[in-house]
Amino acid sequence: MRVTKAQAQANREHIVETASVLFRERGFDGVGVADLMAAAGFTHGGFYKHFGSKADLMSEASANSLARSLVGAEMVDVQGFIDAYVSKEHRDGRGSGCTMAALCGDAARQSDEVKTAFADGIERTLQTLGDKYPTGPDAASGEGRVKMIDMLARAVGAIILSRACPADSALADEILAVCHAEMTASLLMSADSAEVAG
């Protein structure tokens, strides 16, 4: 039976979404094409009707999941980002969590195409949250962005370090608690400085 263009596009989107989850759970190298297609409900041979290579899918799946994460970032302020990101729920929900925390280490060893997808996603996240970072009227141009680069790096690092520990480890929880508290304190100091300056 011939597949319509609309159905072929829907199938491709389903494969990309399935890959996005599996890559975050297992890493790029932990997912083979056959396993991925089986998880998506298709045969292995159908993969190459949609993608030129696994690297093409890795790039597209990364861009897709980074864009979805951005939708969440658009709906919160910086404190809301800290609360949602530096949490046990995020740490334990690897397949549904942030692509940066799950795959940045893997992306560093991939093609420039995959790295570009990550760079674009990171840039969009910084733009979205950097504009929300509290700064005073006399703040240097781009200060919110500088603060958000620091904040994002700390948040991603906290999740990576916490995930590297056994799930029931006191250290895994301590890393999240300390980083959450320090990031919140830093944000409050910036907000207080912005109020005083304003």
UniProtKB/TrEMBL annotation:
SUPFAM superfamilies (UniProt xref): Homeodomain-like (SSF46689), Tetracyclin repressor-like, C-terminal domain (SSF48498)
Regions crossing the membrane: none
Annotated HTH tetR-type domain residues: 9-69
Name of this protein: TetR family transcriptional regulator
Keyword terms: DNA-binding, Transcription, Transcription regulation
DNA-binding annotation, residue ranges on this chain: 32-51
Species this protein is from: Pseudomonas tensinigenes
Superkingdom: Bacteria
